[in-house]
Amino acid sequence: xxxxxxxxxxxxxxxxxxxxxxxxxxxxxxxxxxxxxxxxxxxxxxxxxxxxxxxxxxxxxxxxxxxxxxxxxxxxxxxxxxxxxxxxxxxxxxxxxxxxxxxxxxxxxxxxxxxxxxxxxxxxxxxxxxxxxxxxxxxxxxxxxxxxxxxxxxxxxxxxxxxxxxxxxxxxxxxxxxxxxxxxxxxxxxxxxxxxxxxxxxxxxxxxxxxxxxxxxxxxxxxxxxxxxxxxxxxxxxxxxxxxxxxxxxxxxxxxxxxxxxxxxxxxxxxxxxxxxxxxxxxxxxxxxxxxxxxxxxxxxxxxxxxxxxxxxxxxxxxxxxxxxxxxxxxxxxxxxxxxxxxxxxxxxxxxxxxxxxxxxxxxxxxxxxxxxxxxxxxxxxxxxxxxxxxxxxxxxxxxxxxxxxxxxxxxxxxxxxxxxxxxxxxxxxxxxxxxxxxxxxxxxxxxxxxxxxxxxxxxxxxxxxxxxxxxxxxxxxxxxxxxxxxxxxxxxxxxxxxx
Amino acid sequence: xxxxxxxxxxxxxxxxxxxxxxxxxxxxxxxxxxxxxxxxxxxxxxxxxxxxxxxxxxxxxxxxxxxxxxxxxxxxxxxxxxxxxxxxxxxxxxxxxxxxxxxxxxxxxxxxxxxxxxxxxxxxxxxxxxxxxxxxxxxxxxxxxxxxxxxxxxxxxxxxxxxxxxxxxxxxxxxxxxxxxxxxxxxxxxxxxxxxxxxxxxxxxxxxxxxxxxxxxxxxxxxxxxxxxxxxxxxxxxxxxxxxxxxxxxxxxxxxxxxx
Lengths: 500, 260
Known about the structure:
A: CATH 2.40.50.140, 5-stranded antiparallel sheet
């Protein structure tokens, strides 16, 4: 595959009023490729697409088209066309004029030169436009619709007009911003196949934005999984599905069982209370996240597998049954075509290469905060009680609130900067906005017997925590941390704070 | 049943109070009698008198002239203004929106006096241009207010779609945005005409004294002689009928738009 790079994004950042939307985006796209930006809403995928189209300027970084930086070129001068989410067709024009819109504005080299030897540009002739429009409409199967009003077309037909209007300009890259979002399921499926077919026929590079993982898997040559402005993983659909790099990708793409595990040795990992054979190499005793796809779990007779589990729920899904099994307190989702009864005790086996092991993203929360004069920790504009005697061995706090060392020296820690460390299990969250630190749940991943929740405050501080309770994304919660669970270290030497 | 009758009669009463004086004027415009109340036989004489009265005719022409001129200027400026406001940044948008709506809420007399003070301070003698400025100030917010909803209804990506297809910002404006908001522009224009036609206060303050419109003419005549000259009955009838036709036209346009 020696195809040339048509588009390259290098270190692209985008901020809106100081809030970072896209961070350090690096990607190259090969000519003729079908690339999909996949992620939940608000992950920065559409903003990235808009920067490629030219509607937004990157705050930092370069966008190279055929090796030339285009990040400051206005959209109307870029050989890139876009199919918009809600089509953005021009309702005052009929189908023909919508498709011809770009062609009528286009100027091409007439082959003649003026006195200075510069080529003379000319508009396309009526016949040329006619031919191109008819060709484009034929490609999207709308030959008979030229003189129809936009309002009289169905959603799917409008979609096709939007595609025809874009491809008629023969762009080097076609951008599609959730183009199937407004269609019903059946129509989506049909259009997916048609888009794929069209991509093959036209040979144009497609960049596609969607939050639908199935759509991304069906259509793409390459998927770029994004979350929170950052690229999580770039790879073929198979790579992304089989070898997710972290729990977010595993959870977002397809169904998955995710557990916390520990590496025993080069070939074994411990999770679900049992030792499993695996193929991924990680340092010994490393805490890791383990992913097992529901279809990769094999059900067998009791005691014949690696472990035994009890079926607690069974749902018929058409092609297969979806079971929920309990292994101790842990849940395991399994897809299998054989029917088993609920409450049956069965054996479970997973092939070593079907166990995907990933680095744990978060092992603890780390922040920078400072102390106020009452020895409270100020973190993210919220006030937390903490124990400052841990900063100096053998110390205690006197009546006036100063820290007294074992040698009798007195320290005034007002406004002292501290590094704060809090474990994932040491944070509690509570409904409502009463607490000192309030935020919104931005992510929730099920890890077999508990959830890993990320709470983000308005100041963009993230609190990652484990909880057994079910919450919802976008819930507003207040964050509580017990006094004794807050681990503090001073950023400077303690003698700097000695009271004169 | 009683409730229904009461409701009906209340409504009728209000309508009668509102329209009886106008109806009376219309009826008595078709008789020569100087006093309303005495019917001296059907005649078009008042209309003949009106059309023969050069002062009235001049005022009528002036009124139409200033209405059309100010409406054209307001519509162009107001439409561009609305587009400008719509595509501004959020905070700017709120400020600009507020500023354009002040003249709507403001008492007309305040606008009129402040304009007069401005012109006098700048040493400008009152002429057609000052009057035009006065009427534009009066009507422009209404254009903005009628174009804005149309802009809000647009697909948010419409303008970008035009740029994407190779249109420069000015072509995108002319070929996509303006045609899309045209219905709002037209109703803004019609609103301007009606506002300008019957305006008295701003006209009185910003006109040159030799230039009279219907409203200033009528006021002038009644102030001098204390009584309405009979031919004004014909004039008011004419204006009422014109306004009525105008109203029908706008409503018809609206009904058509709803149907589409």
